[in-house]
Amino acid sequence: MSDTRISEETPAADTDQWKVGKGAYVSLVAVILLFSGAFLKVDGMAWLGAFDFTTLGGSFGTMKDPASNTFLGAGGVSAKAGFMFALSLVPTVMLALGMLEIFTHYGAIRAAHKLLTPLLKPILGIPGHTGLALITDLQSTDAGAALSKELFDNKQITQKDVVIMGAWQYSGAGLINNYFSIGSAMFASLTIPVIIPLLVMFVMKFVGAVFVRFVLNTVYKRDFENE
């Protein structure tokens, strides 16, 4: 990724880097479909799950005794238990970052910047190329956080952007994955379509991020004057 910070007054020499071709849009659509959960559970078309990030991430096998335990075991505490839990996050994060690098090579970041800036800039005040980190967070909070860190380390976003992105990401973190895996226990009790609560939670992610942006622009305005 480029070390250039995208701003409203981008030099002409750097603007060429963000030119978008047809391949970039195809790459962007592919990465959105992969990480958005659109293919996670499609009635009558289960094969589409093969193109979903959660499906590709897979799951760990279980121990035979007790059968309900993964390789993490049961009853672990302190540093060793924490290390094993962290180790369990490595496969999906590595997979997500690797696939995002491929899509970035084909222009997904450029396409996201062009398409999402008109949406994200007025609402959240962040550039469009942060969109992939937000989309990734819908299924993998760890991959979304790692991608956000990469953008910050490459000076493509400011510290203020990171705070706003964090507010969006960790309000209903891993929304798609958690909703269909944990929230599915409540589906039978719903008197409204299953998609409605999901949409409400998605909208509230923006509400929370907008509130944080307002606080940063008022109460903590001086903290970001030099950015």
From TrEMBL:
Keywords: Membrane, Transmembrane, Transmembrane helix. InterPro entries: Gate_dom. The keyword Transmembrane helix applies. The chain crosses the membrane at residues 23-40, 83-104, 162-182, 194-216. Residues 87-208 form the Nucleoside transporter/FeoB GTPase Gate domain. This is Nucleoside transporter/FeoB GTPase Gate domain-containing protein. It comes from Rouxiella aceris. The lineage of its organism: Bacteria, Pseudomonadati, Pseudomonadota, Gammaproteobacteria, Enterobacterales.
